[in-house]
Inverse folding.
């Protein structure tokens, strides 16, 4: 038995069924449903193609197990149905792959953000040339990508990898790619869904775009609005304070502060909220360059959380790094009790306005990087990314834990 998984932006089981019936007119084809028929996100549709046994061969079967997102879109925002949750995990997985093909990686991330359906293709005893051709035809008509395992019919790499519809390696887990670009197509009907946004959401979006234009930052009119305040549950004050202390510790580790001093700070301020990855970083004797960069940039996330807690008056335009000495002094020159007494959680509307602006700035940074251009408006991409990351965590985007926050653009 062999399998591969195909992902597409266009949710259309009917198209898959049509292609299979055209490709195998004499085969025995059956369609069935599995799961809870009342809930789209818990339901999958199966179609099996069985070619009868010949005189010298046994029967061959291709089964396609299809499911789609509860609310198809062109982002991974919104309801966290089973497939959307899986796609967010895939997004984070791809984001962690080290590669010299940064443009392709960013385009693949954009592609994943637009995916709306998944169909696992299972061939028994294996993929024949006919089965392989049918899967490729489906992938081409669906503008799909394929997740393939090494050592199988579809394999083009010795590691797990993503293929385009021409069976070329977009990216494997070791960072290899054999393409220059990835097509990212979006059905226009999904843009129409933005008409349902509230007037507050639309005004917020327009204010952000006006500010970006004023600074010479590129905008994308097709980006959606950010959530309505009624749909957001912010992290509470205790969770944000604990995260602020954890970030202080990790950022100082990245900056090269000696371990004995860090251990004293951890004990004195009763810091217990390190994430699993932060525990790993904090416990290392020597950090690799990428780990130092990861850790030291966290000062910007800390700065954002301190603003959300009302401990900083403003978040300046992100053209320069934050005042590290100021925020570290705030964290270490006050007791936990004194800092907690001063802190409060800003209102959802104020935080969402900052998120909306940052989200659009982040898109401009990613777009410029993909095109090999300088980002406009004197933006510092690292600052923008950390700010977006922290704000998504504060607004509990996708219900993701700190290590797994996604920053879709």
């Amino acid at each position: 038995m062999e399998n591969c998984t195909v992902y597409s932006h266009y949710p259309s089981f009917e198209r898959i069924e049509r292609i299979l019936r055209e490709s195998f007119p004499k085969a025995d084809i059956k369609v069935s449903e599995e799961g809870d028929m009342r809930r789209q996100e818990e339901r999958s549709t199966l179609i099996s193609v069985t070619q009868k046994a010949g005189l010298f061969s046994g029967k061959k079967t291709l089964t396609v197990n299809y499911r789609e997102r509860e609310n198809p879109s062109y982002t991974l925002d919104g309801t966290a149905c089973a497939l959307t949750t899986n796609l967010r995990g895939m997004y984070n997985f791809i984001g962690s792959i080290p590669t010299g093909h940064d443009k392709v990686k960013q385009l693949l991330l954009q592609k994943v953000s637009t995916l709306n359906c998944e169909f696992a293709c299972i061939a028994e005893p294996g993929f024949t040339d006919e089965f392989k051709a049918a899967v490729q035809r489906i992938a081409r008509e669906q503008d799909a990508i394929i997740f393939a395992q090494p050592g199988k019919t579809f394999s083009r790499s010795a590691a797990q990898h993503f293929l385009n519809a021409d069976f070329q390696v977009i990216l494997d887990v070791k960072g290899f790619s054999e393409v220059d670009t990835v097509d990212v197509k979006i059905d226009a009907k999904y843009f129409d869904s933005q008409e349902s946004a509230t007037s507050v959401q639309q005004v917020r979006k327009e204010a952000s775009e006006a500010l970006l234009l004023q600074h010479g930052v590129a905008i994308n009119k097709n980006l959606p609005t950010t959530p309505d305040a009624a749909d957001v549950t912010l992290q509470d004050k205790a969770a944000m304070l604990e995260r602020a202390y954890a970030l202080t510790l990790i950022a100082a580790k990245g900056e090269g502060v000696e371990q004995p001093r860090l251990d004293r700070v951890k004990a004195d301020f009763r810091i217990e909220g390190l994430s699993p990855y932060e525990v790993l970083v904090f416990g290392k004797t020597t950090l690799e360059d990428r780990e130092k960069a990861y850790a030291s940039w966290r000062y910007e996330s800390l700065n954002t959380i301190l603003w959300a807690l009302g401990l900083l008056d403003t978040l300046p335009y992100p053209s320069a790094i934050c005042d590290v000495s100021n925020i570290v002094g705030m964290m270490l020159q006050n007791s936990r009790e004194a800092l907690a007494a001063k802190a409060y959680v800003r209102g959802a509307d104020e935080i969402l306005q900052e998120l909306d602006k940052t989200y659009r700035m982040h898109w401009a940074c990613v777009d410029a990087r993909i095109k090999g251009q300088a980002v406009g408006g004197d933006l510092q991409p690292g600052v923008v990314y950390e700010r977006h990351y922290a704000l998504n965590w504060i607004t509990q985007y996708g219900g993701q834990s700190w290590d797994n926050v996604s920053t879709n653009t």
Q: What stands out?
A: The chain has three domains: 2-172, 197-233+347-404, 237-342. Residues 36-41 have pLDDT under 50 and may be disordered. The first helix runs from residue 13 to 23. The longest strand covers residues 43-51.
